[in-house]
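pls ignore typos typing on phone
S-adenosylmethionine + seq
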Amino acid sequence: MRLLRFLLYKISTMLFSQALYLTKSLTYKKDALKKLPLSADYIRDSTLELCAEQILSKKIVGNVAELGVYKGDFAKKINLIFMDKKLYLFDTFEGFATKDINIEKEKMFSDGSQNFSDTSIELVKNKMKYPENCIFKKGYFPETASDIFDKYCFVSIDTDLYEPIYQGLEFFYPKLECGGYIFIHDFNNSSYSGAKQAVIDFCTKYNIGYVPISDVGGTAIITK
Ligand SMILES: C[S@@+](CC[C@H](N)C(=O)[O-])C[C@H]1O[C@@H](n2cnc3c(N)ncnc32)[C@H](O)[C@@H]1O
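k done
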């Protein structure tokens, strides 16, 4: 045991010299949260767990959603944790829309060249522990949301680009239950600088606060 601790100490010192960090896992997980698979972004996932724990222990009502699903790797964690809630999944499932890319280029936020078209509803559905809870809304957001009036306790917005992020905040924030959370991915990702601008524009307009966290994508969190 002492040797193992010594080795871990040595490894963590080496990583630290490269600005990489080892961290202990959360020690107070609820049973449902223990099932979360290992992740490439520990801080994003453990923050999801902590926020979910607050929502579930306070019995906050409302459904959950992700805008920007791609292959469903974050969505499957939302589905696993919120096992009793409807999960709305918004995506073109064909990658970025040309009109959003044009805004990106015009405002010099990004070149919008990443290709997210190699996915499908079927592929995402097969990853879900509770597929019966999933409602797929395929197509251009916000058009795909025009017939939905539900309230939400947790929303992940991860569309990378300014326009759908801003529209996502306009759509979801008024429907967010008190005690709920909205995660906006890429807030501190300089490759997608429109994400930060969308959060700043929305939060300035409505005088809303947000918290940046130190996950890989640089998520910001809004609560109510
Ligand atoms: C970075 S990926 C999502 C990654 C996913 N959340 C994860 O963590 O694995 C961004 C996704 O946003 C979607 N997207 C971007 N703009 C959109 C829009 N206006 N309407 C619908 N989907 C959009 C893209 O199709 C793409 O699948």
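The CA atoms of residues 137 and 147 lie 10 Å apart. The radius of gyration is 18 Å. more later
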